[in-house]
Amino acid sequence: MPGRKNSRLSLYRKTTGQKRIMEESKERDLCFFNQLKELSTLYEKVKLAVILTETLDKEHKMYIAPINQLRCALDHVFVGINQTNDEQTAYELKEVKEHLTRAGYDALELLTTIIGEQIIDSLSRCS
Known about the structure:
mainly alpha
């Protein structure tokens, strides 16, 4: 029965290795989730700026620049979810933050333009 003992040992090593890999994967997923959760505050601010821009615009237009940046951020989230390389995951999260920041800048730039135009319209009615 030596062959049977070796197969049990082989099976034990295989299942132990699989458990270790699963634990590492869970730990990596939790780390990714926590880092993504930290970005949720930035996302909420950007979302508010985009909504405010669309709300204050007279025609209630949807502006493509901030929406495109949000789309790009979401793409990096999903690429990051599927990464097994920690360096690549960190890169994807960095890209998420950069796109969210760019979306915020784009929305705030549009917002200042809209508010500026409203001020000019209000002043022109007064004179």
